Every structure is written in structure tokens, then in C-alpha cells.
Amino acid sequence: MSTMETQSEPSELELDNVVITNPHIEAILENEDWIEDASGLVSHCIAILKICHTLTEKLVAMTMGSGAQMKLPASLSDIIVVAKRISPRVDDVVRSMYPPLDPKLLDARTTALLLSVSHLVLITRNACHSPSGMDWIDQSLSAAEEHMAVLREAALASEPERVAPGAEGFLQEQSTI
Question: What top-level branch of life does the organism fall under (predicted)?
């Protein structure tokens, strides 16, 4: 940070650095080898990654384009902090996509990523004065939620049947009758 910058005045260069920084993200998103996934879950993870990648890039670009129109000077700083949390979540999702696949882990990691991106959406909407033309954000989040529903269903299906506490004794009594 230069001597001219303070914590309340982050530079636009710093905002440029909040995009998803995984050096392999483009290759991962374009890789067709994921087709070998027998569970069919990886394709949903990739779709979520693509949606989050596009949303993050567009939101950062929108923020940089409306820097002078921010409601509060601290808003830019908030956006930077929130956006920097996204890249580690992307890395977590990518790591969970490698075998052996754990549907519960995929669900948890993609949920964390989507929550981070949703947080960025909320902060950006609040900071920027452009409420019109934001339908693309809701459409993107809705599309991501459709993919999340598939992952959630798989996570729930992978859980062993649960027996209510205290029911074990009842089930044993029933079997002896």
C-alpha cells in the first residue's frame, strides 16, 4: 500500500486482484474429461463454478465502472474484502471434485462458494447506484440454485438411514415379539 493510500481508500488495482485467481480455472472449466464422472455431480459443480466466475467478474467490473457513484467510500473496501473470500472457496470446490467424490463435501463446498458470491452480490447492490438492469444477477443465482438442488439431493441420499434416538430399543422389542 502506498503512502498516498489509506485503509479507507483502496486502489482500483487492488480491486483487479479480487477475481478468481486459480491459475488453472479456465482449463478446469473447459476440461471435458469430467464427463467420466459416473455420479453426474461434477457437471453441476462445474456449472456452479462457471456461474460464480461470471458473476464475480461482472460484479467487479460493475463496481470499477461506478467507483465515483458509490454510496459510501467504505463500500469499495467492503467489496474487496468480500470478493477476496471467493477464490479460496473456488479452490475448495475444485479440490472436492477429485475422486473419491463425497456428495456431502461437494454440497458443503459449493454452498460456501455460492454464499460468498451471494454476499458479494448484496454488498455490490448496496454500494452501487444501479438497481435497474440487475435481472441477470437474479437469473444467475437462480440457475446456480437449480444445480445446488441436485447436489443437496445427492448429499441427502448419501446419508445412511437415521434412526431416531431411543428408537433402537423399540425396534429390538418389535423384532422379539
Answer: Eukaryota
C-alpha cell at position 112: 460456501
pTM of the model: 0.69
**Angle 150-121-67 (CA atoms, 0-180°, nearest 5)?**
155
Cα–Cα distance measured from residue 121 to residue 56, given in angstroms and rounded to the nearest whole number: 8
Q: Please, which contacts does 137-144 make with residues 24 or more away whose CB atoms are closer than 8 Å?
A: 137/55, 137/59, 140/51, 140/54, 140/55, 141/51, 141/55, 141/114, 141/117, 143/47, 143/51, 144/47, 144/48, 144/51, 144/52, 144/114, 144/117
What does the alpha-carbon distance between residue 159 and residue 171 come to, in Å, rounded to a whole number? 20
Terminal Cα distance for the chain, rounded: 76
3-state secondary structure 23-70: CCHHHHHHCHHHHHCCCCHHHHHHHHHHHHHHHHHHHHHHHHHCHHHC
Q: Which domains does the chain have, with CATH numbers?
A: 12-159 (1.20.1410.10)
Q: Which of 51, 76, 60 is nearest to 19 (CA)?
A: 60
CA angle 70, 74, 77 (to 5 degrees): 100
Are residues 114 and 52 in contact, defined by beta-carbon separation less than 8 angstroms? yes
